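Practice problem: predict the structure.
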Amino acid sequence: MSLGRLLRATTELALRLDRLRPGVLDGPSPDAALGGRVGGEPRPDPRDLVAGADRLRRDLAAVGAGDAAARHLDAQLVALRCGARLAAGERLGYLDEVRDRFGVVPRRTHPDVHREAHRRLGHLLPGRGPLAARMRAYREADVIPVERRPAAVHALTAELRARTRDELGLPAGEQADVELVEGRPWTALTRYRGRHRSSVLLDAGSPLRAGRLLGLLAHEIYPGHHTQSCRADAVAVRHPVLGLRLVHSPQALIAEGAAEAAPWVLPGPGWGAVAQRVLAGVGVRLDGELAERIELATTALGRVRQDAALLRHVDGADPDTVVDHLSRWLLVPDGQARRILEFLDHPQWRSYPVTYAEGAPLVRNWVERFAAGPLAGLRLLLDTPVLPEDLSDGAGAVTEGVGEPFPGSVPDRPGDAPQLRTLQ
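Answer:
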């Protein structure tokens, strides 16, 4: 069986699993006709999907293709097999689930790493007194007034879109719609609809902060998830395996890591000054330099949620113990810590924190060491089948296609405006 036929069979398997557990695919089916046919079938038995994944992996091994595309497809099959086992009611150990879905083993963080982050924040945060109270006061003062949020989102998105278009390239007609939603277990989520269009959902229960907004929009839209999906569509002719995007897979860990690294690559260091300038134009005050320094210090706390997940699902800690851990190290009130715990306990999302905790430092360290520069490194990660293990061996592990322009990129004509429908 050829690699192309194996990819089609893997897509079929993913569509069948999505019938049992909606949300398997990150975006629409790469094969609409196949999606329609699978949608008309009887609901599958998840045990048949486990057997199907095993069979496809054997067929893939028989092909003998050890290149990046075959390794990428095999990792997708391992992740799908894990999802099918969960759908069949199997009780998987947490570490096994994380490894099979995302291709890494989560590591615990020594408390001294968190203590050092708190020490740095203590020097940066204004005021005196307990660190948690000072952080709470800083965050509350940083919240954007409701009436200014649409303008702030539009202005920063337009700035990031222009920079992404100029530095990475964007396809003609791409569009991102931003909406507020209620009662979600996450702060923001991007849903790719195909044809270079995405819906970006922001949870209304999470206050939008001036010092965090540029990073949030860079993560979700430019040059984050929306841009990732647009580029995956465009390069699918050269790398067909990138057309099948799974929410739970090693590819997702790379995607989240790249999205977390996005503002540190584009605009790059000094993004705080960019945010300050743009937000001033819509009447929102921000000390951009301080915001950037605080965000940099808090990146060292990026593993706190993963440590909490390990406490909960490996050590068997009770909810109050996990909430205390989250509240102490993330410097958040108990109510917010319990909201994070809901995400960690959600059956569909409990293993997902690894994508941030392991993916973010993995990608950021790799692009910072990339010989052709961080922007070229980010471009390569967007356009090439890459696994986490490829980034752990050094900056030279992945080199194909460095510096290639965005396929089909069309620069905006003078006077063109960003295609946005911002918060209402």
